[in-house]
Amino acid sequence: MLELTGVSHRYGAAMVLKEISFGVEAGEKVVLLGANGTGKSTLLKIANGLIAPSAGQVRYRGEAISPGALRNAARNRRFRGRAALLFQNPDAMLFNPTVLDEIAFGPRQLGLADAEERARHWAAALGVGRHLDRPPFGLSGGEKQKVCLAALLVLEPELLLLDEPAAALDPRSTGWLVDFLAGLRCTVITTTHNLSLAPELGRRALVLGEDHGLLHDGGVEAFLGDRERLLAANLMHIHRHRHGLVEHRHFHVHDWD
After folding, report:
1. Rounded to whole angstroms, how far apart are CA atoms 233 and 239?
2. For the segment 83-134, what is each residue's pLDDT rounded down to a tens digit?
């Protein structure tokens, strides 16, 4: 479904991604891991055609995807109806006067006759149906994230790209999100800092190293059980503990959102 070949990207002189190549099959659930600054968000934006990579190519079902390629109106309409990106910060996605308008915006842009019916269905599915007449800006962080997710799912995409979707959620909502995503039939690529959550989000892990290359492409459990690779990815550290008068050092994984 999705194929990246030799994708590299720079912001000025700073290397953000280095020769990334992988493919994702339809229906896969993939977790994208890496320390801060390794390029995870940039990689999702490139996969979604929002950023043109400095080098390399992205293909979706065999078609080239980039801002230039998506200037073709028919291709852009087709791709935007199939692939959707959830930004890490929900405020970056909200701009409509009500929650209903926010969720219905995409299908209205595509001229779908059942836009409002779809919006009400997905608002209920995401648990924000009672907020349909409210401005989305006044909701809690977790509610905003759910509205943004509903605004993507209303188009029933084949590919869902999620950038830290649990970042604004409390533990109960995080558990709900894991169960909800597990029930989706579409292909999902999810970034997270929460390593204990990673096995719940997918069986396959793509791990970006601090050199901005692809450090691991394989099973999530295999990666989480590999201390050397966790250290190399800067996802594990050592620090001292005190227990009374005794001091010793432990390995710890980075496990936060």
Report:
1. 17
2. 999 998 888 999 999 999 999 999 998 888 999 999 999 999 999 999 999 9
CATH number corresponding to 2-82+157-253: 3.40.50.300
pTM tops 0.85:
yes
Residue 250 pLDDT grade (very low, low, confident, very high; cuts 50, 70, 90): very low
Tokens 């492409």 found at: 217
Q: Compute the distance between CA of residue 175 and CA of residue 197 in angstroms, rounded to an integer.
A: 9
Which H, E and C letters describe 108-130, residue by residue? Answer: HHCCCCCHHHHHHHHHHHCCCHH
Residues contacting residue 106 through CB under 8 Å, at least 6 positions apart: 80, 151, 152, 154, 155
49 near 70, Cβ under 8 Å? yes
* Measured distance CA(240)–CA(163) in Å, rounded: 32
CA dihedral of residues 248, 254, 256, 257 (deg, nearest 10): 160
Per-residue exposure over 94-108, b if at least 16 CB sit within 10 Å of its own CB, e if not: bebeebbbbbbbbbb
